[in-house]
Structure formats: structure tokens, C-alpha cells
Specification:
Radius of gyration: 20 Å
Strand content: 15-25%
Order of helices and strands: EEEHHEHEHEEEHHHHHEHEH
Mean pLDDT: 94
Number of strands: 10
Structural class: alpha/beta
Helix content: 40-55%
Bound molecules: 5'-O-[(R)-(carboxyoxy)(hydroxy)phosphoryl]adenosine, zinc ion
């Protein structure tokens, strides 16, 4: 079975072709064009700009994915089904992918499988040699989402909790902006944090000890802004050492609640498998601290994190998810849903 996936929910235009046999899911091609560099100028994504870039990139990206997967023919004859992200995301961006996928399904006479972008991030863990087993706890950490989920089976999951305000990635991005770093801020903060002291600044970790599985990140950016504009940093000057220490302290303050509540969820539901998804899952410190904590508190627990290029937005994860879902009976009726929740 070969599925062509399309992802256009934000500022990445992506197409990937994946094959599934009875052993594993493999990537035949995986093409991502990003307008992030353009968005960097504005310090965040401008929806109108992102949609225009989607339109510009979508056909060349699909053509390139076909060429790489099928160098001889370069066409879609070898594709069995088409998968597409239909939400959540920016409506102008989503429409480009959804309408293109519907057209391809119609012209090629192939089934169309709609995929939730958030679920897609988790299915990046199903690409490759070893795959997670159910039940498992899933932590989704991206620019727009911070959610904990209990997966019972394919397509069957229970929402445990999530952020009450900003997402973890959003917090990285907003703090980075305050620090005068480039967008997206997560990788920038992580790079500076490597040579900084995470204990240098005492930053808040709201809700870290609450009884639920919720998070709160909006207070952190305010604390960072206050720190820079007032007392401590003003006194010592905004040196590169201060910048590194601030980055390390911010990274640690974002990671601590994620690790604590994920481990707590795994303990409560007695699961031995944890899966990560979303752009922030590319963060090395989060990956290693979760491994360490799981080793300490959940004996023999297994942590699955997608390869880094599969953490940030891509179409391979969308095609991977589609292997476990049913196609639509009437593909022309598919509508993009910018507010789609974390459920199929
Ligand atoms: O999943 P994603 O590509 O897009 C959304 O669906 O939101 O996630 C993007 C987010 C951005 O906030 C970015 O700063 C963050 O993921 N990110 C990171 C790292 N790489 C990307 N955050 C921390 N450390 C990283 N290495
Ligand atoms: Zn995403």
C-alpha cells in the first residue's frame, strides 16, 4: 500500500509518499518547502502571507515528491490513496492542501483519507523499524498545542489535559522574541542554552504540582520580560553570558512541567510506553530528561520520539497516520476545519 500525504496547515508546504508492508512503514519521498524564513521578518506567521506561499509551492512540492519516489515514471500511477491534513491550522493554508488533495483524488480516481494534524504528529512514531505498543501516553508539544493523551488503540484515545493558555512552542517563540532571537525561537533558545546555566535565573513553573494534567505557560514570558526590563539583568547588562543563562533557564522552565506531568500520567494509567510528537519534541533536553525520568520512575518504560525531521511539520506523518484510517466515501465533500480538536 502506497499513500501520498499532503500537509499545508501553517507555513510548511509538504508532500510525502510512504509505503507500508506487513513489517514497517517506509518513506519513499519526503519534501518540505517552508516559508518560515519569510515569516521570520515579521517575528511570526502572517496567515495571508503563509497562504500565498502555500499556493506558490504546492504543485512543485508534489511534483518533486513524485519524482523522488518514482524516478522512472514521475507520476501518480503507483499511489493507492491520498491523505491530507484537514485541520486544525490556518484556514487559507489548509484550503490549499485540501482542495489540491480533492482534485488529485478525483483526477487519479483514488480514495481520500482526511488526517487530523495533531494526531499526525503522533503517528510520526510509526515510521521505521520499531513502533510503539498500546496503551501509551502521548505528549504533543508544538507551536500551537501542548496536550497529554492516553492512546488505547489506533484512533481510540482519551484527552488527559493540556495547556490553559500558551503552548510550549509558543512560549519558546515568545521568550525568544523578548530575547531578540530569530523566529522560530525554540531551536535558537536550545542552541544558546547548550552553554548556559539552567539554574541561573529562577523562573516560574505554574501548575507543575497541580492534581490534573494541565499546563500554563503564559506567565513565563511575562517573567522573562520583567527580568530583562527590570532588576537583575539590567544591573549586570545584557551580555552574551546572560543571554545563554537566560536561554538555559527558560528551556528548563518549559521542560520541567512537561516531564513531570507526562511521567505522572504514565504512572496513573500504568502504561509502559510514552510517545512524543510536535516541533518541541525535537528539543534534545526534553528528550533526554524524559528518558532519564522514565528510567528512574517507570522501570522499563519505553520512550518513542520521532527523528528530528519528523517532529516539525511534514507530510510523512500525515501519510503514516492514514494507513490506520478509513477513506471517505465522498471525497469531494471534505471541508477544511481550522478549529479541529484533538480527535479523529
Ligand atoms: O509542530 P510544529 O513544526 O508546528 C506546529 O504545528 O505548531 O512546531 C513548531 C514549534 C515552534 O514553536 C518551534 O519554536 C518549536 O516547535 N521547536 C522547538 C525546537 N524545534 C522546533 N522548540 C524547542 N526546541 C527545539 N529544538
Ligand atoms: Zn504541527
Amino acid at each position: 500500500m502506497v499513500i501520498l500525504g499532503i500537509e499545508t496547515s501553517c507555513d510548511e508546504t509538504a508532500c510525502a509518499i510512504l509505503q507500508k508492508d506487513n513489517k514497517r512503514i517506509t518513506i519513499l519521498s519526503n519534501v518540505v518547502a517552508s516559508s518560515a524564513k519569510l515569516q521570520e521578518k515579521f517575528g511570526g506567521v502572517i496567515p495571508e502571507q503563509a497562504a500565498r506561499q502555500q499556493l506558490k509551492f504546492i504543485i512543485p512540492v508534489i511534483e518533486e515528491a513524485l519524482k523522488q519516489a518514482f524516478p522512472k515514471s514521475g507520476n501518480g500511477v503507483g499511489v493507492d490513496a491520498i491523505a491530507v491534513t484537514y485541520g486544525p491550522g490556518l484556514i487559507g493554508s489548509l484550503l490549499v492542501g485540501v482542495e489540491t488533495a480533492k482534485t488529485l483524488a478525483l483526477v487519479w480516481d483514488k480514495p481520500l483519507i482526511p488526517v487530523n494534524h495533531l494526531t499526525g504528529h503522533f503517528y510520526a512514531n510509526w515510521i521505521g523499524e520499531t513502533i510503539p505498543t498500546f496503551p501509551c501516553v502521548g505528549l504533543l508539544v508544538s507551536g500551537g498545542h501542548t496536550d497529554l493523551v492516553l492512546f488505547q488503540n489506533y484512533g481510540k484515545y482519551k484527552y488527559l489535559g493540556g495547556t490553559r493558555d500558551d503552548a510550549a512552542g509558543e512560549c519558546f517563540d515568545k521568550c525568544a522574541r523578548i530575547l531578540g532571537l530569530a523566529y522560530p525561537g525554540g531551536p535558537e533558545i536550545a542552541r544558546l542554552a547548550e552553554n548556559g546555566n539552567p539554574k541561573a535565573f529562577n523562573l516560574p513553573r505554574p501548575m507543575i504540582d497541580t492534581d490534573d494534567f494541565d499546563f500554563s505557560y503564559s506567565g513565563l514570558k511575562t517573567a522573562v520580560a520583567n527580568l530583562i526590563h527590570t532588576s537583575e539583568v539590567k544591573k549586570s547588562g545584557y551580555t552574551s553570558e546572560v543571554k545563554r543563562n537566560l536561554s538555559a533557564s527558560i528551556e528548563q522552565a518549559i521542560i520541567d512541567p512537561l516531564v513531570k506531568k507526562t511521567i505522572k500520567a504514565a504512572k496513573k494509567y500504568r502504561v509502559k510506553t510514552i510517545i512524543l510528537g510536535g516541533g518541541v519534541a525535537a528539543n534534545d533536553k526534553l528528550r533526554s530528561e524524559l528518558q532519564l525520568s522514565a528510567k528512574r520512575y517507570l522501570l522499563n518504560a519505553e520512550i518513542f520520539v520521532p527523528q528530528k525531521f519528523l517532529c516539525t511539520d511534514n507530510a510523512a506523518m500525515i501519510a503514516a497516520a492514514a494507513f490506520f484510517y478509513q477513506p471517505l466515501n465522498d471525497s469531494v465533500s471534505l471541508q477544511a476545519d481550522p478549529n479541529l480538536a484533538l480527535a479523529y
